[in-house]
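Regression test case RT-17, inverse folding.

Input:
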């Protein structure tokens, strides 16, 4: 399946910058990198793919001698360094390559920004272009097939998510595949970091976050339930975000006295299949009590994907008053606020957030349900 990022990345090639492709394991980074590599080869470029998890590759790339690096890369125009975070001092090595041999286009992939970004940050300031690859998006499914297929698979997406290897599998196979992905990348990308002393704690935290999708989280409450301090909870959630498992929304607070603090947060999952695997619940929607949270998570993460693919840049929030009135999701762009409430059932009745609309000028409000989602996600 062709990914939306492919064209965006190809437009940035041969401009003297390293292309860095981030994303969780199994979202399709290697596939995308190889598709771009094939196109470069068709265009007459000399290409090279290197798996940085292999010992021989690591040994030859872990040097700051520019001549040794050039000898190993050869006379290739386009080089893919897959899982580049496995290379010690990768940031410094890429800096040497881009400064000494700017004619060589490097595309480096990494499954964890916790590791890769920390190694690339300072050395590659002004020398790289970053791209984040999500699991499949609704837009990609429609572009590669049709709207009917996206509509017919909607319930399955809420149960099993949108990892490329999961999409369109029969239900039982989809559940097994999601659980395999969850266990493999959770352990490889989180639990194997040296600073994680207790793997059980972070898995317990993930379960608590999964059960609170759509709700505001309390660091103090999480710390109490886990028997750890608040700072550790904050550090673990930050790690989960850097490993592309969860992301957060902060509260909008500007005008109204009783708005919750802008420090307030909601936590969502990049993929609902992963979320459901963590709590071991792949039940059909008709049998679930968490459909509201699933729908809210699905709509927000799909909007993120759509905005990225279409170069739409917005500030993103939720909003709530201590008295209880709330809005699930708000986008701010060009001085305008677009507010959304998510309800899976088209029959759900929702009162307009009058206090919000009175306090904030130039604001729209829309309810997104299972009959009009396409107007929000792929307009």
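Golden output:
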């Amino acid at each position: 399946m062709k990914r939306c990022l492919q064209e965006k990345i190809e437009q940035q090639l041969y401009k003297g910058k390293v292309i860095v492709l981030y994303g969780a394991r199994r979202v399709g980074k290697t596939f995308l990198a190889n598709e771009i590599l094939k196109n470069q080869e068709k265009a007459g470029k000399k290409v090279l793919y290197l798996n940085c998890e292999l010992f021989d590759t690591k040994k030859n790339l872990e040097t700051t001698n520019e001549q040794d690096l050039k000898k190993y890369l050869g006379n290739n125009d386009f080089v893919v360094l897959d899982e580049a975070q496995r290379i010690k001092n990768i940031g410094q090595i890429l800096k040497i390559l881009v400064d000494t041999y700017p004619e060589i286009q490097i595309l480096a992939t990494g499954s964890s920004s916790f590791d890769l970004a920390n190694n690339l940050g300072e050395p590659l300031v002004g020398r790289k272009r970053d791209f984040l690859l999500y699991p499949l998006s609704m837009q990609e499914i429609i572009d590669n097939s049709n709207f009917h297929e996206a509509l017919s698979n909607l319930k399955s997406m809420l149960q099993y998510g949108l990892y490329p290897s999961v999409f369109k599998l029969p239900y039982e196979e989809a559940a097994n595949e999601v659980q395999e992905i969850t266990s493999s990348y959770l352990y490889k990308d989180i639990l194997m970091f040296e600073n994680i002393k207790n793997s059980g704690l972070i898995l317990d935290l993930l379960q608590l976050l999964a059960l609170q999708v759509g709700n505001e989280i309390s660091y103090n409450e999480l710390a109490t339930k886990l028997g750890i301090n608040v700072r550790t909870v904050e550090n673990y959630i930050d790690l989960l975000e850097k490993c592309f498992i969860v992301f957060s929304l902060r509260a909008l607070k500007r005008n109204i006295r009783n708005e919750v603090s802008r420090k307030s947060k909601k936590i969502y999952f990049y993929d609902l299949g992963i979320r459901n695997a963590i709590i071991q619940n792949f039940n059909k929607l008709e049998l679930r009590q968490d459909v509201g949270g699933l729908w809210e998570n699905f709509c927000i993460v799909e909007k993120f994907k759509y905005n990225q693919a279409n170069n739409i840049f917005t500030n993103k929030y939720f909003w709530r008053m201590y008295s209880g009135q709330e809005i699930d999701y708000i986008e701010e762009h060009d001085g305008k606020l677009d507010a959304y409430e998510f309800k899976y059932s088209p029959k759900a009745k929702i009162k307009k957030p009058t206090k919000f609309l009175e306090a904030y000028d130039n604001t729209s409000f829309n309810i997104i349900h299972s009959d009009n989602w396409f107007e929000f996600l792929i307009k």
